[in-house]
Amino acid sequence: MKQLYKVPFERNSGRLKELRHQYVQRVMELEANQVPHEIIYVDESGFNLAKRRRRGRNIIGQRATVTVPGQRGANITMCTAISNNGALLHKCQIGPYNTDRLLLFLEDLHERLVPELYLMDIQSASSVVLQALTQATSQDTAVLKPAEEQLRQWETQPGFYSVLLSIFNNHLLDVNVRWLAVLYFKNGIDRYWRRVAPHALSEEEKSSLRAGLITNFNEPINQIATQIAVLIAKVARLDCPRQWPELIPILLESVKVQDSLQQHRALLTFYHVTKTLASKRLATDRRLFQDLASSIYSFACSLWNHHTDTFLQQIYTGDQQAALSSLERTLLSLKVLRKLTVHGFIEPHNNMEVMGFLNAVFERLKQFLECCRQVGPGSLCREKLEKTIILFTKVLLDFLEYHPWPFIPLIQRSLEFAVSYVFTEAGEGVVFERFIVQCMNLIKMIVKNDAYKPAKNIEAVEETGGDSWKYSLRPCTEVLFLDIFHNYSQTLTPVLLEMVQNLQGPSNVEDPVQMLMKDAVYNAVGLAAYELFDNVDFDQWFKNQLLGELQVSHNRYKLIRRRVIWLIGQWISVKFKPELRPLLYEVILSLMQDPDLVVRIETATTLKLDILSSD
After folding, report:
1. What Rg, from alpha-carbon coordinates, does the chain have?
2. Distance, CA of 106 to CA of 109 (rounded, Å)
3. How far apart are the C-alpha atoms of 384 and 345, rounded to whole Å?
4. How far apart are CA 608 and CA 614, in angstroms?
């Protein structure tokens, strides 16, 4: 980077920017590790021993002397490693530093940082480590604290993690002890797996550990199986595929076995490895993941289709327990496909398998929604079934977010699907709240996506309130309405005004449908106040219609009273004459005595908005 920076036309080149980006990302990745670590700055600097000055320098009043170096004219290079503790190592030599000399310097630095340690013998140490882990699970602090301190001292000893591996792979031991062994192993990966880390594990021990981690996928305890899958993924993030090329082939073979438990554990590990590799953001890592995705995508699709078909067959025959097991594998294989589809291809629209999978998502969604109707709310599979349906929608949402242009062929089908299940009778009895929210998010992302707008219409608008609206039905619906109304106001304004006109006059308190309709229409007019500024004479509407509705004191009319006073609060800062404020204050004083708490709170909120708008 430094050499490129000295070349004018390379100073802001794409290559140099990519090198800067990789450097910063690497430092941020190191700093993000929640483990004790220290960053060491290594640099070299050259200087020449030529002595051309004829005048020396010295303290005022003293004689100046000139010292000529013995190696006059020689080029000297100094390489130094510096940390927060000062200079760790420095070396000087004649001539420039090259790769071989820099590697020798780093080896000397490594020897200085990492002291000689004795190798922990696995056979003799297993019983000692097992005893310490057992004591570390105790509730007695007098037993717990010394055990934790002993384990902390062993963390840097060669062979310690091999002992932990043998302990958590032993299914006959206590579950809590095995769980703790997995956690110590997982934390050790963050601290000591990297080659440049203080007290780093040797390459021989790491090779042995990698081989031991994938020898079996038959862990009977779900929680421990998940932690083992996570720690394998952590190792894969650092070593796969360069130092661990056999990992992916072994996982692909393991998910094909007939044993149900082994197949599930291998698939669980496959998912966590894929998820971790997909999260890497350096350009070289992304290219490696794209190569991996293109090589295994076809197999992942076949695996997902197989487990999905098996589940559907079992659920329709009434075999709930077998169906639940197949559904878990369906969910895991779909999670793998989600990561591969979203992060594994630069131009996914040119890959027939990717587009085929995305089109198949809609058909599978319909099948799974019909399963919800069949199994009912009390079924064993219901919770996992809803999770799978939500995951289908996440596939579409993620693909739309990361690949808006390749998503264009799917826009019409996405909108038709979402509108059909959310706003028509097709969704009755099968949809649930979170699914409706996801469908509305899909519609909103399509409507609001800047990639689908002409350049002149792109607006830099910041959503208020963060992303909380994405997860609740009512806020999500309101945000979707606002986006649609904003983008298609010319079409929708006459429709909304006609609905307002049809609801003139007090509503029949005995007709709940009419009451709810008026509440919804008034809510829409309040949300779209700024869009309707030129189309609604709010002052006349307030005097002729809204004021009368606020004076209806029937208990069932509290819904409309609350909505009308809220509506006035929305329009106060938009279009409301000062001459009408005394009339409004009279109504507010009256409503503050309303027996309904919600009406009183909404009235106070409107008063606050009026005061703020007056300022």
Report:
1. 34
2. 5
3. 29
4. 10
Instruction: Quote the CA–CA distance of 260 and 325 in Å, as a whole number.
Output: 8
pTM of the predicted model as reported, rounded to 2 decimal places = 0.68
Apex 35 CA angle, 29 and 40, nearest 5: 60
- Alpha carbons 173 and 169: distance in angstroms, whole number: 9
For the chain, percent helix, then strand, then coil, each to nearest 5?
Answer: 65, 5, 30
- 176-190, 436-450, 534-548, range with the lowest pLDDT: 534-548
At residue 54, the pLDDT reads 54
Does residue 46 contact residue 75 with C-beta atoms inside 8 Å? yes
For residue 427, what are its two tokens?
Answer: 């969704």
> CA-to-CA distance for 436 and 15, rounded, in angstroms?
45
CB 525 within 8 A of CB 501: no
In DSSP notation, 137-151 reads: T-S-HHHHHHHHHHH
In whole angstroms, give the CA distance from residue 353 to residue 355. 6
Question: What CA–CA distance (Å, rounded) separates 527 from 518?
Answer: 14
**Cα-flanking dihedrals φ and ψ of residue 147, to 5°?**
-65, -45
C-beta separation of 235 from 210 below 8 A: yes
- Comparing C-alpha atoms, which of 363, 384, 254 is closest to residue 314? 384
For 472, the enclosing helix (H) or strand (E) is none
Residue 324's CB is within 10 A of a number of other CB atoms, namely 18
pLDDT value of residue 244: 94
Q: Which long-range contacts (CB under 8 A, 24 or more apart) does 117-123 make?
A: 117/156, 117/157, 117/158, 117/199, 118/157, 118/158, 119/157, 119/158, 119/159, 120/154, 120/157, 120/158, 120/159, 120/160, 120/162, 120/163, 121/159, 122/159, 122/162, 122/163, 122/166
527 pairs with which residues across the strands?
Answer: none
Whether 37 has a pLDDT exceeding 80, the answer reads no
What would the pLDDT profile of 158-185 be if each residue is shown by its tens digit?
A: 889 999 999 999 999 999 999 999 999 9
Q: Of 490, 517, 491, which is closest to residue 504 (Cα–Cα)?
A: 517
The pLDDT, as a whole number, for residue 533 is 84
CA distance 20 to 192: 26
Question: C-alpha 225: how far from its chain's center?
Answer: 22
